[in-house]
Amino acid sequence: MKTKSIRTILFAVSFALSILSASAQKNKPPKNVPPGNPPKNAPFDGGITFLVGAGMAYALKMAFDTKKKSIHNENIN
Hints:
Blueprint: H1 2-23, H2 45-76
């Protein structure tokens, strides 16, 4: 039980630090842009990639827990 709480805390701290470091990055504007035409940059990929990765990790965890539970139930019967 203690190991699980340590893992949870470690995951939460690493998640918070990665979010803070990602949000601290500043985008520098391109040098050769004529005035009046701002660059059309959107930080779109980073957030979606993170969400897809988190969803995949959650799905793997749920599959592992289900498999572990079914093996445990087979051993009891």
